[in-house]
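Note to self: user wants both folds in one dump. Writing first protein now.
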Amino acid sequence: MNFTSFHFVFFFFTTLVLGHVLKGRPQRIFLLAASYYFYGVFEPYYLILILFSTAWDYLAGLAITARRDWEQNGGTAGLVARLPAKFYLVGSVLINLALLGYFKYTNFGITILNDVHPLGDTMFAFPAESILLPVGISFYTFQSMSYTIDVYRGVLEARKDPVDFALYVTFFPQLVAGPIVRATTFLKQLDEGINIQKNDIIVGVTRIIVGFFRKLVLSDNLAPVVNQVFSNPGAYGTLDIWVASFAFGWQIYLDFAGYTDIARGVARLFGYEFEINFLYPMAASSITDHWSRWHISLTTWIRDYVFIPLGGSRVGPVRIYVNIAIVWLATGIWHGAAYHFVAWGVWQFVMIAAHRVYGRSTVAEKLREVGGLAYNAASRIFLFFCLSFGFIWFRAPDMATANLMHGRKFGFENLNESLLFNSQLLSYSNLRDLNEFIVLLGLLWVYELFFNKYQLEYFWKPENRKKLILILIAMIYMIISMTPAETPNFLYFQF
């Protein structure tokens, strides 16, 4: 079910009212049933997969606890307690990764096999499988898996009530595209019960309006130009490719941040506070700063469950870069099963490694001292320049298209057109010319810098409520007047 559909509007208000009327365990059962309905609307068979994954990790958590209880208290070991806790942990991780691997990476594996064996481009090539990727599988798999890991580490007690655990995995606001919520956060709030105050309503409604504004007004109005260029990049010149790469960066950011704003706002109205997932990453001054602000729930998940177990920064200087490389290769593959996503992940590693070396140099120290405002502005512009290469790898349908676009950015292939800056975007009906679109991208940067300085917490203060009301009225007006006739699904549904 899409947040931008009328179906969701009816579902949300019905669920909100009944969710507050019911209390205790009946309330949890109702929210769980509503969440299964929300997910089943996409494709009913998806429910079988998420039910299996939920049941497996629920039982694994109980088994780990049973083993630990026997180790501490002794006595007669039951059948479950006879096996070590690590057995259940490994089983949980392997099953989750196997499910994710089959549905998301089978055809990518077949592609690699065809590329490496000598008859891969003939009639003897391995055929691709017809596999429908379940919506949100990357998100709920990581969320469910982190629960088992935390139980094994002793960070969390295994939840005995299956309804509680199932609701944690499937709670509908963040089910499809995050944020990835930790069990320690959700279950603690679940135990505290729903207690909605006036401030919760203000915060929740504000986030929902801001989310729809980011998605419908900002992101969706960038989509036609992005789609136009990326669908046929060979027809466009240097300036067009640069503009399209910048535009996609803004599009996917505003689309995904809009989704998580709505998710966090809806959850807040049900009494749950999820951690922030985007903290104005386009206002960052370096690649490490950028990734400390972008998709925070994923980056912290990978830090805690991949990077730190590998040794983190506690290892030698060479091993640190190996760990960082593994992390970003995994992050690229998590986003998509294709070579261009691998290239995107490798590019993030290159940027982070280069910044790590540069940041420890005397040159960086000196420039920071004498550069002042100019250095600060230049670092932001340079970061966006570097990010644009990753945006192309992320959005392009394949490596051939990405390579073509990267070449076009510097005038290779059809060089005369590139040098003349001939623009096919002049025909785009919603913009008079390309210069107007470039101005729009500049205004988005101003928007980002403004709200990075004056974040929503500033407007929630009682003395600033009038400013908040004016901003929300303006956003609602633009949502009504500027939403495109056709609004695409949230981009991260495909991950």
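First done. Writing the second protein, which came from a different request thread.
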Amino acid sequence: MDRKRCTAIVLAAGSGSRMKSDVAKQYMDLCGRPLIWYALHAIEESSVIDDCVLVTGAEDISYVKEEIVERYGFCKIAAVVAGGAERYDSVYQALRFIADGNMQTSDGDGYVFIHDGARPFLTEEILQRCYEAARMYRACVAAVPVKDTVKVADRDGFAVQTPDRSTLWQIQTPQVFETRLITEAYEKMMLQHGETDAEQEDTAAPKRRITDDAMAVEAFTDVPVKLVQGSYENIKITTPEDMTVAEALLEDRLDRRQEAVKVFLICGRICSGKSTYAENLRSEHNAVLLSVDEIMLAVFGLYAGEKHDEYTERIQRYLFEKSVEIVKSGHCVILDWGFWTRQKRAAAREYYQRRGIACEFHYIDIADGLWKEQIDRRNHMVLAGETEAYLIDDALAAKFAGLFEPPADDEIDVWVRR
């Protein structure tokens, strides 16, 4: 099944009156960044979302473009549009912007992810779960089961009913729908609201208040809305107390991330499968992969001449320094260049220990017979023009084998036998 386009609509048009601040809550500082930054960053980094419409107050558009979009380099934000008086007005403006063909790439046959900008703890896992559910059910919302008993009260504040807690969910965002489905639901809703306003102009009868997008789909289509597991951390910032909770959650996340961040060093002979192993490790840990061979090949092609060893050493020193920067930003790093000698392995481990950075050596221990098979396979691909690499003849293979010093048990953290 072809993947359809996914557009995020991020709502940041509220005044934040309950925050008791002159600054709208979406721009208030949360651990050194505007609150809205966190949701936009999650969308920017997501493999699910293709582009984004950011909805803000008309008076804030210039500020948002300069101080949020441009300052932080958000490339997925395709447009900043003015919202309305109510949440549903803001959503409608974004949906009309998309439906009118204003996006660089049409999303008419895709999905929209409607998210509150005041929910800073959006994750890739939530986005992935919502996307899969939207593909299956056409409409879904992130939500969590309620933990407390809920009472229904009358107008005088007396309990009149206790719903079964097992049937109750607390609704969050993102709320995800087929683009055409949610657009049609909103068109019908806005048309009815216009008629209702005219009819009720001289009456005291209240108009039904639409508090989330799922209500529009529930009221104006026959498509049921699927509840998808969100996260209890996916809170919405509404009051000053919420900011205090958010700061604590961010600090806890940073602590957990720093504890988990490490450098993986891949040890093994040439053509032992290190690159494939490193790529799998990269996917598993969402790590940054640094490879000397990739840089050498990109800069010098197949042959770097008599200065090959000098260039290799200089690139390695550079990547060691770069790996420290990446780890400090909260990401794991993989160094993929063999570490053939005991001296190099010891020096690498000491380098990270001095800087208080956790590291692991993973050794790809390949049997001689399989090693020769993989060299033959590589040489066949080189001769067939299927890969850009140098041939490894018997003499070169013997040279590499002689240069490699098999590690002792106390040098290796993870031993991979092949």
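Dump finished. Worth passing along: The first strand starts at residue 6 and ends at 12.
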